């Protein structure tokens, strides 16, 4: 079996056996079995899923990271784990790069980081805490891109992801009879005020950002009760880390004002922060040269800017000296990332693996 077929086999397995964040137990075991078969040394962890493998010799360490987790979503009327974000493809491409490199005469060490819980936004931090980035000078990631960003055959040397964070909130008012609204404090009125307030947040039109309600829970089966209590959630996005801090501050100021205006309790907490990309120009240039070497100048795409987020960028936040870039692989992916029926051209897997291998070898 040649490398291309083996890469497809890896993908088929991971696609058929998805596991959600922090539960990638069988995925980790499969990766360990692959490393055993290739006689590649690796280490696992007692307290979290994930695996780190390494080949080559020398003082210099270059690394590549693959995320492992699937999403939990409704597929064909049934909720289940599903690799609609392409992490099965990311693992297959990184394993493919390993296949292409493992018999090369390397003057440096190349580290392969298989990371859990990217979808939770904190898997990268767990790997950093366990030494994944120690001694690493350059770090690369890889991700399939949706068709509206890049067609099959094109590869970009970097993805400029945005920053993302979620807010979960609770409103504590007073229930009232539907005929006597003056006796209560209506949580739905408060939700409506929050919605209207969010629409009034403005920054420069040259900056990319958004904030919106993504979850509302209020009331019960009795339709003649005005609910005093409600729960809600917000999704905040920004193309820069600095603007995200301003956006969070504006939201907190608004919620505090609405709390006072309506005389209700509003409590909130921030969850699952993911920073915006801090791309190294050096790492981007190396990846760009590798792309041109492997698939030609005509197929080298410019860096991608997207409002999506990825916890890959915690590596550079926690280690600012790290030179990092995430490679974007065109695959005619549609209808889109996180869509339950996401599909793509599987020929992109070998392209991504070969570009990754060349990038790691020439860094």
The run of helices and strands is HHEEEEEHEHEEEEEHEEEHEHEHEH
Tally of separate domains: 2
The second-level CATH architecture of the largest domain is 3-Layer(aba) Sandwich
Report strand %: 25-35%
Question: What is the top-level CATH class of the largest domain?
Answer: Alpha Beta
Rounded to an integer in angstroms, the radius of gyration calculated over CA atoms is 23 Å
Segments where pLDDT lies below 50 for 5+ residues?
none
Short description:
The protein has helices at residues 3-16, 25-38, 87-101, 123-129, 187-198, 241-262, 281-295, 314-318, 348-362; strands at residues 42-43, 51-56, 61-67, 71-75, 78-82, 109-115, 136-146, 155-156, 159-160, 163-172, 176-177, 209-218, 225-226, 229-238, 265-274, 304-305, 323-333. It is of the alpha/beta class.
Give an overview in words:
The protein folds into two domains: 3-161 and 277-362, Zn peptidases (Aminopeptidase, 3-Layer(aba) Sandwich); 163-274, 2-Layer Sandwich (Alpha-Beta Plaits), CATH 3.30.70.360. The strands form five sheets. Strands 1-2-6-3-7-17-8 form a seven-stranded mixed beta sheet, sandwiched between helices. It is of the alpha/beta class and 363 residues long. It is built from nine helices and 17 strands.
């Amino acid at each position: 079996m040649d490398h291309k077929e083996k890469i497809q086999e890896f993908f088929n397995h991971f696609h058929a056996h998805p596991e959600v964040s922090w539960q990638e137990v069988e995925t980790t075991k499969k990766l360990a079995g692959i490393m055993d078969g290739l006689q590649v040394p690796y280490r696992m962890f007692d307290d979290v899923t994930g695996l780190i493998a390494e080949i080559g010799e020398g003082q210099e360490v270059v690394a590549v990271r693959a995320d492992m987790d699937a999403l939990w979503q409704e597929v064909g009327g049934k909720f289940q784990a599903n690799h609609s974000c392409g992490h099965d493809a990311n693992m297959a491409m990184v394993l493919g790069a390993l296949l292409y490199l493992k018999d090369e005469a390397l003057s440096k060490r190349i580290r392969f980081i298989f990371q859990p819980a990217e979808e939770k936004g904190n898997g990268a931090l767990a790997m950093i805490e366990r030494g994944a980035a120690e001694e690493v000078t350059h770090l690369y990631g890889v991700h399939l891109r949706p068709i509206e960003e890049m067609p099959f055959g094109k590869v970009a040397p970097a993805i400029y992801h945005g920053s993302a964070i979620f807010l979960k909130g609770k409103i504590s008012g007073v229930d009232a009879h539907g005929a006597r609204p003056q006796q209560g404090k209506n949580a739905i009125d408060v939700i409506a005020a929050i919605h209207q307030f969010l629409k009034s947040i403005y920054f420069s039109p040259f900056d990319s950002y958004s904030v919106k309600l993504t979850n509302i829970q209020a009331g019960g089966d009795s339709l003649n009760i005005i609910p005093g209590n409600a729960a809600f959630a917000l999704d905040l996005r920004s193309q820069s880390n600095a603007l995200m801090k301003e956006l969070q501050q504006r939201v907190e100021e608004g919620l505090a004002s609405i709390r006072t205006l309506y005389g209700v309790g509003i409590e909130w907490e921030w969850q699952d922060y993911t920073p915006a990309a801090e791309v190294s120009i050096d790492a981007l240039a190396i990846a760009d040269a590798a792309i041109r070497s492997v698939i030609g100048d005509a197929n080298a795409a410019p860096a991608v800017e997207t409002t999506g987020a990825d916890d890959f960028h915690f590596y550079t936040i926690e280690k600012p000296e790290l030179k990092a870039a995430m490679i974007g692989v065109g695959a005619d992916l549609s209808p889109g990332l996180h869509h339950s029926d996401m599909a793509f051209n599987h020929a992109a897997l070998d392209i991504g693996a070969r570009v990754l291998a060349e990038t790691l070898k020439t860094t």
